[in-house]
Structure formats: structure tokens, C-alpha cells
Predict the structure.
Amino acid sequence: MFRDAYNAGDPVGIEAMKYIKNGNLVSDDITNKVVRKRLEKEDAKSSFILDGYPRTVNQAVALDQMLDEMDTQLDAVINILSSHDVLFERMEHRRVCRDCGETYHLKFKPPTTPGVCDECGGELYQRQDDTHESVQNRLEIYETKTKPLLDYYEEKGILYHVNGMQAFDQVTEDIMMVLEDL
Ligand SMILES: [Zn+2]
């Protein structure tokens, strides 16, 4: 979303990319603005999925306010459970297409031709935040900043847990089951 807003020449997107280029987390204020603009687009009117947001209780509160003003609300929050070992394994082997954003895993979902995207022929790269050190850092941030969201959504009665330590397809299926039962 940050990249799209930046490419569209949106001032908020340009502001966000300044943080990202310096390797910093984008401030809650800017992040909330980018999300709001995205949620107001036509294709998000009937439904949407947020991935990687909100990451802090502050962001969650802002999101609730935003949705309130837009006369809608979250139906479900899905917590995908995984051990740290599995997370390291996944992220260190993850490769992403520079052009279309498709993701690969060197062991479990390798591209047909090494380094080349099956979907569009684009170049695959390792995200800077997928190195061991960076993953460690992100897990620490998760523990202090993001984990409190579980209590926040539990209290609202919309929190669901899915076992993330299964084959990709099974995780997908379990998530679909949660959504279908809503
Ligand atoms: Zn691609």
C-alpha cells in the first residue's frame, strides 16, 4: 500500500517512503492515513483483508475509529500461530518477485527457474527484512508491540486462531473455514 501510494504521487505515500528508505517503521499517523485512503477505494467497499496491519494497539484503535466513520467493522481477526523456528525457516528462505510481488520459498515453493518469477518472469530477491538478524528484531517488536492486539481483539470476541505450522494449502483451508463460518 505504501508503494502504491508513492507511485501514485500521493503526498502521504511520499512521506511514508522516506521512513522506509531509511529502514525505519512508518509512523502510526502516516500508516493510518495510507490505510484509510485504500479502504475508501471502490473495490474495498464490500469487503477487504488487511495483512500486516494493525501492528500496534494504537493502530487498532485508529482503525476502529476509521471503520466506525465509514459505517463498517471487522468481522474476524486471524492469529496464525507458529514457533520461532518455523518462522525463521520460512522467512530466510523466502524470495519475492520484484515486479508482481509473488512470493516463493526456496524449499517448499521454489520457482521453476532459480531467481526468476513463474508468474511474470520478474527477478526474485530476498527482502532486506528477511535476514536472520532482522527476523530476530521483528520478533522482539512483535512481542512488545503487536502481541497485545490478541487481548484487544479477544475482548471484542472476533479473534480466531489458525495453526500456521502446517502445509501452505492446509493453512489456507483452515483460514477459509473460519471465514465461511462467520
Ligand atoms: Zn512476478
In short: The chain has a mean pLDDT of 92. The pocket of zinc ion is lined by residues 97, 99-100, 102, 117, 119-120, 122 (CB under 6 Å). The two ends are 27 Å apart (CA to CA). The helical segments are 2-7, 11-21, 28-39, 57-69, 84-92, 132-146, 148-156, 168-180.
